Amino acid sequence: MKILYLETSSKNCSVAVSDDEKLLCLCEEVSDNYKQSESLHTYVEWALEGAGLTMKDIEAVSLGKGPGSYTGLRIGAASAKGFCYGLKVPLTAVNSLESMIEPFLGKNYDFIVPLIDARRMEVYTAVYDGNTGKELSATEAKILDETSFEEFKDKKVIFVGDGAKKAKEILSLPDADFRDDIYPSAQYLIKKTVEKIGQKDFEDIAYFEPFYLKDFHGVKKKKSEE
Q1: Which of 10, 17, 5 minimizes the C-alpha distance to 35?
Q2: Strand partners, 143
Q3: pLDDT category of residue 223 using cuts at 50, 70 and 90
Q4: Is the pLDDT of residue 33 over 90?
Q5: Which residues, in sequence order, are bridge partners of residue 61?
Q6: Per-residue pLDDT tens for 164-187?
Q7: What does the DSSP assignment read for 65-84?
Q8: By percentage, how much of the chain surpasses pLDDT 90?
Q9: Cβ burial, residue 151 (10 Å; 0-12/13-18/19+)
Q10: Of 108, 98, 184, 112, nearest in space to 149 by CA
Q11: Which segments constitute the Gcp-like domain (predicted)?
């Protein structure tokens, strides 16, 4: 099955194409200017060309559903819905935090904790098992302080994402690793998407909304800052 992937929840505008679990092409760029509105459809064209396919070959669309940038998520969701309507193909959606943990699974970490920078000392986060990738605590908006994640003091843990920088500055976890150069990526939506397609776990295209996490008022405020 030929699948198109869109991940627009962060500064990384990311598009991938796969044949089942085989990655055929990835096109992405990290930009502080949030280039989704101007770059997404160009990246889709490039990814399809790199995969040797046309849009008519696509049999399903997968979206990184957030949490993350309100503006980015709106653009990604609108595009994904448009492709699905036009092609009459199903839509799957994967938590964007899950696409951040895959490179670190099985690397001797007890826990992997994605941290997406929200505002001030707030992050979007969840906790995953370092070996299985199983979600251990649900996605939430969390205000960081000196006592955050202190339950991991004697554990091997890695914090990944652009929120890891401010976490490193205040957390008292000398044995923890921090990687603030990690962003959600379309290539890491593939495994979960193929599982969802096998289970026929599809979204209702008419009613699907991205995973904004915060209430609409708070997100609107964030939109004006981007």
Answers
A1: 10
A2: 122
A3: very low
A4: no
A5: 4, 91
A6: 999 999 998 989 999 999 999 999
A7: --SS-HHHHHHHHHHHHHHH
A8: 88
A9: exposed
A10: 112
A11: 37-180
